[in-house]
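User: For my dataset I need records formatted as: sequence, then structure tokens, nothing else. Please produce one.
Assistant:
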Amino acid sequence: MNGWDASTTCVIFNPHAASGRVGREWAERERTLRQLLGPVTFRASRSSGDGAQQARDAITAGARTLLSLGGDGTHNEVVHGILTSGAPRGSIRLGILPSGTGGDFGRLLLDSGDWLSAAKALPTATSTTIDAGLAIFTKEGIEQRRHFLNICSFGVGGLAASMVNSSKKRLGSKATFFLTTLEAIYRYTPATVRLAVDGKEVGTYTITNIAVANGRYFGAGMMVAPTASITDGLLDVTVVEAGGLVTVLRLISTIYRGKHTELDCVKTFRGAVVTAETVGPNPAFIDLDGEAPGQIPIRLEAVPGALQLLLLRPQGDPA
């Protein structure tokens, strides 16, 4: 990006990210960020959902570049804040400083997934237009509309997200998600879900999980949607049907490489609008960029050209 302007740049950080490590290290991180980025401003996200309000407040105060420092949940909130701020689409630039447990969206942008490497790259980064998603669901009888940056899933993913967020995360990101996913699979009662893509019913499935993806990764490096692109205006849908222990082991052995789509228990679709509802008594809980906001029924819509994203790779397509 030409003409880096620190005076209109705000870092929105989550001190609770990475099991509180961001907060514990904040004094040192702030000094480092000022050295690398210049006299930027800082706003802390103090509670669940506050990142969106901090983003809206920063834009009202004149920020035109927002840097999200935290995990995928923090990035989710900042994106939602940008897209509900009333600012013209594409007028606010987004930068990612990956600092959470999973860091899955950051994997698209930076091989290391390191906030410090990202901070060094941002002042000379170029920007590109990317898509987002919109999730519409009901919680406690009230319609919720939440934008997402990376992936929305439901099934065992929602249970795993809830368990990860309530854990101490002491084993590191990949081990935490891997072991928690195994435990969630053991505890999970498969839901039966009726699925439609672009208004056409594509099947009713008893599921382990369904992922509706803008990005490619979730669960600290599982390549759940290997062909997903953040610039194609579409959402990639990966259905994993419920199966026995052998099926689960084959899934786990292939999903980090994106080879699970070759399994008979996996179905894939692509479209701009996805709807899902349960059939039968078992619920399917939602994982929205690593957060667990409720359960389906749900409607998911692609939001093409939603954001200007600062790229961290010197070359190549971030999608």
